[in-house]
Every structure is written in C-alpha cells, then in structure tokens.
Amino acid sequence: MGVWMSRPFEVVPNQKGGKNLLFFNYVYRKEASFKTSINWVCNQNVVSRCQARIVQKTVSGELKLGKHGHNHDPVKIPPDSECIAVFTMTMRGKEQLLYLGQPFVFEKLVVTPTAEPKKIWRCNQWWNQKCRARVYTIGNVITPLNRYHTHSDIVKRKRRVTKKKVAPVSFISAEDAIGSSGDSAGKVMDEEVAEYVVNIEDQKKIELPDY
C-alpha cells in the first residue's frame, strides 16, 4: 500500500460543475466521498484505461497514491502569460478566442454569484471532430474547463470557397425563334433577287458586234 504524504495539489472546476484534482499535472475525477476521505481516479481511466488512483484525507489533505501508475503523459499546464485571453474575429465577423494557438468559439454567457459575466468557449472542432475541450473567461483571464482535445494538431477553420455567380439564361418562345429565322431568311432572299435583277440590266446594256 502507498504512504500518506503532504504534497501540493490543486482542486480545479470541471465543465460539469464539479471538481477535479490536479496533482503533478495529472487530472483526477472524484469517484466516491466518505466521512474522512475522498477517492479520486484518473480522468483517463475510460479513454486510456488508466488505473491510477489517489486517496485524499478530507481534514489534513494528505494524499496516498494507488499501486498503479499512469499509462499516459501528463497534461501541459500553460504559463501564466498564456492565460491571458486573446480575442480575434472569424471570417464571418464573429468573435473567437485563441488559447494555446487553438481557436475557440463562443458558446454561452453565465453570470457568476458576484454578478461577473463569465463566457463559456468551446473548441472550434466541437462538431467536425466531436472535441469537448472548453474554457471560460472572466474579463481577459482564461480558465480551462476541459484541457483534452480529440485532435493532436491545431485546427483552424478552413477558408470558405466563394462560389462563382452563373449568368442567368434567357429563354425565347418557339414563335419568336421561327419569326426571327423567317425574317433573316427573307432578307437573304430579297438580296439574291436584287442581285439577279442587276445582272439582267447589265446584260441588256451589252451591244452585239457588227458582221
């Protein structure tokens, strides 16, 4: 069995309104609460089948690690300078948030008990890749709710292709088509008749030679 130890840890809020335990950059979720202790399990126990556990004393806060270690890497905690919100605009003119290079789109507005507006943002790949990463901002300070993305690379929204406008096609009736073709045929016939008459007039002017 593990040994009780006093090590620094942090309890952070999650996207469901509960609490997670952050210990050495590993995230644990609450499994069960008892009168004198709380059992925490790795929040990757379903996705990665990680069996790491921690037992916490409710009074002293001492921790005891389970016999299994983690089978995955710890989360990357950004420095304080990267917790400052950077807002940009999407191609549609809507506000978006950049966090660690990844764009987040606005989801909803929540009012805190102190009457401060809190904005919830979700990864812009929440639909395409079913990503559940979310953060919230109060003012210009970012607090992550769920740090895990379903994609490893930073994905920005693709530029939309502008569709070319097709010129409208005009239609004419059959009567108009026949009428226009008949007029053109009549003009050609008139020109041929006029040329024939001119040729006859020229032939009349020819004088026969004397014998």
Rg value: 40 Å
Distance between the termini: 146 Å
How would you spell out the order of helices and strands? EEEEEEEEEEEEH
State the shape: elongated
The assigned structural class equals alpha+beta
Using DSSP, what is the number of strands?
12
What is the CATH fold-level name of one domain? N-terminal domain of TfIIb
Total DSSP helices: 1
Average per-residue pLDDT, rounded, comes to 75
Strand fraction band?
25-35%
User: Which CATH-level-2 architecture of one domain?
Assistant: Single Sheet
Task: Give the CATH class of one domain.
Answer: Mainly Beta
- Sheet having the most strands: 6 strands, antiparallel
InterPro entries: Znf_FLYWCH
Pfam families: FLYWCH
GO molecular function, one term: zinc ion binding
Keywords: Metal-binding, Zinc, Zinc-finger
Describe this structure in words.
The protein has 211 residues and is α+β, with helices and mostly antiparallel strands. Among the domains are: 4-65, N-terminal domain of TfIIb (Single Sheet), CATH 2.20.25.240; 85-146, N-terminal domain of TfIIb (Single Sheet). It is 15% helix and 32% strand. It contains 1 helix and 12 strands, in the order ββββββββββββα. The chain has one helix spanning 174-204, and strands at residues 10-13, 19-23, 26-33, 37-42, 53-57, 63-65, 86-89, 95-99, 102-111, 117-123, 134-138, 141-146. The strands form 2 sheets. A 6-stranded antiparallel β-sheet has the order 1-2-3-4-5-6, with no helix packed on it. The protein is elongated and about 115 Å long. The relative contact order is 0.09.
